[in-house]
Amino acid sequence: MFSTLFFKPFRPLSGVSIASVAIGFISVLGMAGALPAATQPYSGPLFDAHLHYNEEAWNGQTGPHPLSDVLARMKRNNVKAVVANSRPNDGTRALADARDETRVAGVTVIPFVRLYRNRADYDNWFRDESIYEMVQAELARGTGSGPYRGLGEFHLYDSANANGVVAKKLMTLAEDKGLAVLAHVDDVAIDLLMANTPSRGQKMRLIWAHTGIGGASAERVDALFGRYPLLMGELSYRPGLTCEGGRLCPEWRALVLKYPTRFMVGSDTWVNQRWLYYDELMQSYRTWLGDLPAEVARNIAWANGASLFGLK
Ligand SMILES: [Zn+2]
So what's the pLDDT on residue 35? Predict the structure, then answer.
């Protein structure tokens, strides 16, 4: 089961409030000049740092979202690279092996090994030796787009499980092999996971999925970013991120301006409904990105992810 702390709505956060945005806009009109003029949405390339291609989307034969569908969604949104991971890993391999189709769509696939063969693994991976063996077998096998570049997404619903025997082994493996990890965890677990790496977090490329879906404060995120130089924040579902007009709330605007090389955006297509809203999700990112200095917007939209994985 998923705790309410980790509940995720299907729709994009800012997409649900089109009506309230419209109402807000009308009230802004009545306050002549109270807000600066609306800026143009960011129009450059996007790096989707949190993409799933799970078996219910397409299992290789049937499903509502075959390769042609998901690649068309990426292409029309100018998504040029994706961190792909899926339950089970066949979905990731389907994307990564489709060299011709992804090249035509202009999408670079960066494959991650997901730790889940099925839903039962969500609650047990951190102590299940067979997961460690599965990860090693996947790493040895690789993909049609080359070696896996990371591990995850994985979840910890109880942060103490960051100290599970297999969680510890996987963090050591990731750092030793130069793999990134995509972790859906709370702020306490960030410290625990980092403590379990050989460098005690100083060389660990940990992408914090949602930058704390439970709502860790901006001050807490700031402190963790200060402590771990390669910690990155992925911003899907992040509570409190956007305010009026779909723009960043003040404390988040300050945070991304303080750490312009540390944040990324992602779709988190964890259920098929997220594929249906892929366009709206990317558009909602473009809205707030457009309100940032151009270089910061391009970093968060594209360059931070691209440089993390050595893309041009
Ligand atoms: Zn996810």
Answer: 52
Whether residue 228 contacts residue 204, with contact meaning beta carbons closer than 8 Å, is answered with yes
Over 41-53, what HEC string results?
A: CCCCCEEEEEEEC
DSSP structure string for 72-114: HHHHHTTEEEEEEE-SSTHHHHHHHH-HHHHHHHT-EEEEEE-
115, 88 in Cβ contact below 8 A?
Answer: no
Contact between residue 105 and residue 74 where contact means Cβ atoms under 8 Å apart: yes
- The per-type count for the chain, helices as H runs and strands as E runs, is 13, 8
pLDDT at residue 5, as a whole number: 41
For residue 196, report the distance from its CA to the centre of ligand 1, in Å: 23
312 CA distance to ligand 1 middle (Å):
25
The count of other CB atoms within 10 Å of the CB of residue 140 is 9
pLDDT at residue number 171: 98
CA of 30 to the centre of ligand 1 (A): 40
Measured in Å, residue 311 CA sits from the centre of ligand 1 at 22
Is the Cβ–Cβ distance between 138 and 99 less than 8 Å?
Answer: no
Greatest pairwise CA separation for the chain in angstroms: 63
What is the per-residue pLDDT for 37? Answer: 54
Please tell me what DSSP assigns to residue 25. H
**Segment 108-154, tens digit of pLDDT:** 999 999 999 888 999 999 999 999 999 999 999 999 999 999 999 99
pLDDT-flagged residues of the chain (< 70):
1-38
Which residues are CB-contacts of 47 (< 8 A; sequence separation ≥ 6)? 79, 80, 81, 82, 264, 265, 301, 302, 303, 304, 305, 306
- How far does the centroid of ligand 1 lie from the alpha carbon of residue 49, in Å? 10
Question: Measured between alpha carbons, how far is 264 from 242 in angstroms, rounded to an integer?
Answer: 15
Task: Calculate how far, in angstroms, residue 34's C-alpha sits from the geometric centre of ligand 1.
Answer: 38
